[in-house]
UniProtKB/TrEMBL annotation, chain A:
NADH:quinone oxidoreductase/Mrp antiporter transmembrane domain mapped to chain residues: 134-417
EC number assigned by the record: 7.1.1.2
Name used for this protein in its record: NADH-ubiquinone oxidoreductase chain 5
Transmembrane regions listed in the UniProt entry: 6-27, 39-58, 78-96, 117-134, 140-160, 172-191, 245-263, 275-294, 368-386, 406-428, 449-468, 488-507, 586-604
GO biological process, one term: electron transport coupled proton transport
Catalytic activity: a ubiquinone + NADH + 5 H(+)(in) = a ubiquinol + NAD(+) + 4 H(+)(out)
Signal peptide stretch: none
Organism whose genome encodes this protein: Crocuta crocuta
Cellular localisation: Mitochondrion inner membrane
UniProt membrane topology term: Multi-pass membrane protein
Principal localisation: mitochondrion
InterPro entries for this protein: NADH_DH_su5_C, NADHpl_OxRdtase_5_subgr, ND/Mrp_TM, NU5C-like, Proton_antipo_N
The family this protein is said to belong to: Belongs to the complex I subunit 5 family.
Automatic annotation (TrEMBL), chain B:
Family designation: Belongs to the complex I subunit 4L family.
Residue ranges crossing the lipid bilayer per the database entry: 6-22, 29-49, 61-81
Keyword set, alphabetical order: Electron transport, Membrane, Mitochondrion, Mitochondrion inner membrane, NAD, Respiratory chain, Translocase, Transmembrane, Transmembrane helix, Transport, Ubiquinone
Protein name: NADH-ubiquinone oxidoreductase chain 4L
Secretion signal, residue range per the UniProt entry: none
Any one GO MF annotation of this record: oxidoreductase activity, acting on NAD(P)H
Bilayer topology: Multi-pass membrane protein
The keyword Calcium appears for this protein: no
Length: 606, 98
C-alpha cells in the first residue's frame, strides 16, 4: 500500500487548481502565468515519483473512481489506467509543457490576454492527460474531443486574422472526419463486446476485428494528420509558436498514434489492419517530407517535419512494434518542441519575420539559439547517441529486418534522407550566409526565461533518449543481429541527405534563378491536395443539394408536374380547338327562337 | 295539372326567357340561371312531397349542391371577364382568346 495512486491523483488535482482559481483575483493579476508554470513544474515533480516506482518495480494501477451510470448492461465509470504508456508519457508531457509555458511567458508577454492563453494551455494539458490515462473509450473520447476543442481555440488565438479562423475551422473539420471512425469503433465495441473498458475488450475473442480497427485507423488519420486528412497541420501554424510547440508537435498530434498503441493487442491479430497502417504511414512520411523541401515558412517546414515523424510512428505500429512507436513519441516531443521554440526565438528577434528567404547569418548573432537549432536538427535526423537515435534508428533497423512491405520500407528510407535534407535547408537559410533581414530589428536572446526553457529541452534532447531507453522495463526484443549494411542504412541515408542538400545549397548561390519546375510546384503547393479537395468537395456537395432539393423537389415535383402542366395544357388545347367568335346574344336568341317555334309547332298540329 | 305546378312552371319559363334574352350585362343571365335553379328546386320538392316519393327525397339536396357549384363556376367566369375588361358587357366577348 504505497502512495502510487494518491500521488498520481494529487498531480492531476494540482493541475486543476489554476482552472478553479479563474474566478478569483489571481486570474486577473499579472502573476497568473508564472503561477501556472510553477503548478506544472510541481505536477511534474510529483508525477515523477510514481514513474520511478514503475521503473523500479513495474507496478501498474487502475484507479476507478466514480460510477457515473449504468445503461442496461453498459457500466460507465471514471477510471484511470496507469500502465507503461501513461506513466511514461505523463512526465515527458509535463516536462515539455513546463518548458513551453516558461517560453510563452517570454513570447506572449505583450499580449493583453496572456492569462487566458495560459488557461487554455493548461486546459489542453488536462484533457491530454485525461486522454492518455483513460481506461475506457468514453473517457478517452472526452479527452479526444477536449484536445480538439482546445486546438481550435488556440489556433484561432488571433481571431482577427482570417487565415487563423480558416485554419482553426480546418483543424476542427478534419478532426471531425476522424471522429466518425472513432465513434464507429465505439459502436462496434458496444455491440460486440458489450463494454467500453479496455480490459474486457482485450479479453474477449472476436472473429473479424477489421471494422473497429479501420475506424480507429481513420480516427488516427484525422487526429495525427496522416495522408488524406493532413492539410490542417501546416495550416495550424497560424497559431502562436507556443501553441505549435505544444499541440502540434509533441502532444496533441500524437493522440492518434497513442490510440493505436493502446489497441495494440487487437492490432496484432489483424494482418489487414497492419498492412494498411504501414502503407498509410509510409505514404504520409514520404509525401510530407517532399512537401517540406520547398516551403518558405520556417514553421511550416517544422510542421511538415512533425507530420513526417508521425508517419514514421504509424509505420512502426504497422510493423507491430507499439513500444518502439511509444519511445519515438517520447523522444520526439523533446527535440520537436525545442525546434519550435528556437524558431519562435528567431521570429521574435527578427520582428515577426517567418520567411526563411529573409533570414540569414544568425550563426554569430544568436549563438544559443543556433546551438539549440543545430542540436535539435541533429537529434531529429537521428545522429548517433543523441535522443532521436535511440528511437529512430531502432525503428529503421526493425523495419529492415522484419517481414514487411518492401515498398513501404523504401518510402521510409527515402523520407529519412529527405529529413536530413530539409533540416540542412533550415539551418542553411537561417543561420549561414549573409543576413537578408531588415537591419534595424533588435536581435536579443538574452532573456533568462527563453534561455532556461530552451536549456531544459536541450538537455532533454541530448540525454533523454539514453535515460529513457536504459530505464524502461524490457518490452519487445529488438533484432540483435543483422548484416552490417542494414545496420548502417539509416545512417547512410541521413548522411546522403545532408551532403546532397549542403552541396545543392552551396551551388545555388552562384546560379541564376530559373522559373519553377513542375516538381517544385508540386512540392511547394503541398501536392495540390488542399487546392483540389478544399474546393471540389464543397462544390460537389452544394451542387448536389441544390439540384436534388431545390430544382428537383421544389421546382419540378411540386410545381410543374400537376399544377402548371395542367394549366399549360388546357390553355394550349383551348387556343388550338376554339374558333368561335363570341356572339353570345345571337346564340342565346337563336336557342330561344328554336324552342318557341318547336313548342308552337308541336302544340298546334293536328 | 293543378294551378301550383303551372305557377312554378311559369316561373321557370320566365327565368329561361330572361337567361336567353338579355341586353348587355352577363350578370343578368347568371341571375336568371339562379332563378331557374330555384324554381326547379321548388318544383321537385313539391312533387316529391305530394306524391310521398320518399326514396327520392335526396334529389333536391343534390340539386342544390350542383347549383352552388355551377353558380361558383359562372361567377368565376364573370370575374375573369371583368378582370380583363373592367365591366361585364357582353359586347366585349367578341374575341375568345386566352
Amino acid at each position: 500500500m504505497n502512495l502510487f495512486n494518491s500521488l498520481t491523483m494529487t498531480a492531476m488535482f494540482i493541475l486543476l487548481l489554476p482552472i478553479i482559481m479563474t474566478s478569483t483575483q489571481m486570474y486577473k493579476s499579472s502573476l497568473y502565468p508564472s503561477y501556472v508554470k510553477t503548478t506544472t513544474s510541481y505536477a511534474f515533480a510529483i508525477v515523477m515519483i510514481p514513474a520511478l516506482m514503475f521503473i523500479y518495480s513495474g507496478q501498474e494501477a487502475i484507479i476507478s473512481n466514480w460510477h457515473w451510470m449504468t445503461v442496461q448492461t453498459l457500466k460507465l465509470s471514471m477510471s484511470f489506467k496507469l500502465d507503461y504508456f501513461s506513466i511514461m508519457f505523463m512526465p515527458v508531457a509535463l516536462f515539455v509543457t513546463r518548458s513551453i509555458m516558461e517560453f510563452s511567458i517570454w513570447y506572449m508577454h505583450a499580449d493583453p490576454y496572456i492569462n487566458r492563453f495560459f488557461k487554455y494551455l493548461l486546459m489542453f494539458l488536462i484533457t491530454m492527460i485525461i486522454l492518455v490515462t483513460a481506461n475506457n473509450l468514453f473517457q478517452l473520447f472526452v479527452g479526444w474531443e477536449g484536445v480538439g476543442i482546445m486546438s481550435f481555440l488556440l489556433i484561432g488565438w488571433w481571431y482577427g486574422r482570417t487565415d487563423a479562423n480558416t485554419a482553426a475551422l480546418q483543424a476542427v473539420l478534419y478532426n471531425r472526419i476522424g471522429d466518425v471512425g472513432f465513434i464507429l469503433a465505439m459502436a462496434w465495441f458496444l455491440t460486440n463486446s458489450n463494454t467500453w473498458e479496455f480490459q474486457q475488450i482485450f479479453a474477449t475473442k472476436h472473429e473479424s476485428l477489421n471494422t473497429p480497427l479501420m475506424g480507429l485507423l481513420l480516427a488516427a488519420t484525422g487526429k495525427s494528420a496522416q495522408f488524406g486528412l493532413h492539410p490542417w497541420l501546416p495550416s495550424a501554424m497560424e497559431g502562436p509558436t507556443p501553441v505549435s510547440a505544444l499541440l502540434h508537435s509533441s502532444t496533441m498530434v500524437v493522440a492518434g498514434v497513442f490510440l493505436l498503441i493502446r489497441f495494440h493487442p487487437l492490432m496484432e491479430q489483424s494482418k489487414t489492419a497492419q498492412t494498411l497502417t504501414l502503407c498509410l504511414g509510409a505514404i504520409t512520411t514520404l509525401f510530407t517530407a517532399i512537401c517540406a523541401l520547398t516551403q518558405n515558412d520556417i514553421k511550416k517546414i517544422i510542421a511538415f517535419s512533425t507530420s513526417s515523424q508521425l508517419g514514421l510512428m504509424i509505420v512502426t505500429i504497422g510493423i507491430n512494434q507499439p513500444y518502439l512507436a511509444f519511445l519515438h513519441i517520447c523522444t520526439h516531443a523533446f527535440f520537436k518542441a525545442m525546434l519550435f521554440m528556437c524558431s519562435g526565438s528567431i521570429i521574435h528577434s527578427l520582428n515577426d519575420e517567418q520567411d526563411i528567404r529573409k533570414m540569414g547569418g544568425l550563426f554569430k548573432s544568436m549563438p544559443f539559439t543556433t546551438t539549440a537549432l543545430i542540436v535539435g536538427s541533429l537529434a531529429l535526423t537521428g545522429m548517433p547517441f543523441l535522443t532521436g537515435f535511440y528511437s529512430k534508428d531502432l525503428i529503421i533497423e526493425t523495419a529492415s529486418t522484419s517481414h514487411t512491405n518492401a515498398w513501404a520500407l523504401l518510402m521510409t528510407l527515402i523520407a529519412t534522407s529527405l529529413t536530413a535534407a530539409y533540416s540542412t535547408r533550415i539551418m542553411f537559410f537561417t543561420l549561414l550566409e549573409q543576413p537578408r533581414f531588415n537591419s534595424l530589428s533588435p536581435i536579443n536572446e538574452n532573456n533568462p526565461l527563453l534561455i532556461n526553457s530552451i536549456k531544459h529541452l536541450l538537455i532533454g534532447s541530448i540525454f533523454a533518449g539514453y535515460l529513457i531507453s536504459h530505464n524502461i522495463p524490457p518490452t519487445t526484443t529488438p533484432q540483435t543481429t543483422m548484416p552490417h549494411y542494414l545496420k548502417l542504412i539509416a545512417l547512410m541515408a541521413t548522411i546522403t541527405g545532408f551532403v546532397l542538400a549542403l552541396e545543392l545549397s552551396l551551388v545555388t548561390k552562384n546560379l541564376k534563378l530559373n522559373p519553377a519546375s513542375n516538381m517544385f510546384k508540386f512540392s511547394n503547393l503541398l501536392g495540390y491536395f488542399p487546392t483540389i479537395i478544399h474546393r471540389s468537395l464543397p462544390l460537389a456537395n452544394l451542387t448536389m443539394s441544390q439540384k436534388s432539393a431545390s430544382t428537383l423537389l421544389d421546382l419540378i415535383w411540386l410545381e410543374n408536374v400537376l399544377p402548371k402542366s395542367i394549366s399549360y395544357f388546357q390553355m394550349k388545347s383551348s387556343t388550338i380547338v376554339s374558333n368561335q367568335k363570341g356572339l353570345i346574344k345571337l346564340y342565346f336568341l337563336s336557342f330561344m327562337i328554336t324552342l318557341t317555334i318547336s313548342l308552337l309547332l308541336l302544340n298546334y298540329h293536328e | 295539372m293543378s294551378i301550383v305546378y303551372i305557377n312554378i312552371l311559369l316561373a321557370f319559363v320566365t327565368s329561361l326567357l330572361g337567361l336567353l334574352i338579355y341586353r348587355s350585362h352577363l350578370m343578368s343571365s347568371l341571375l336568371c340561371l339562379e332563378g331557374m335553379m330555384l324554381s326547379l328546386f321548388i318544383m321537385m320538392t313539391v312533387v316529391i312531397l305530394n306524391n310521398h316519393f320518399t326514396l327520392a327525397s335526396m334529389a333536391p339536396i343534390i340539386l342544390l349542391v350542383f347549383a352552388a357549384c355551377e353558380a361558383a363556376l359562372g361567377l368565376s367566369l364573370l370575374v375573369m371577364v371583368s378582370n380583363t375588361y373592367g365591366t361585364d358587357y357582353v359586347q366585349n366577348l367578341n374575341l375568345l382568346q386566352c
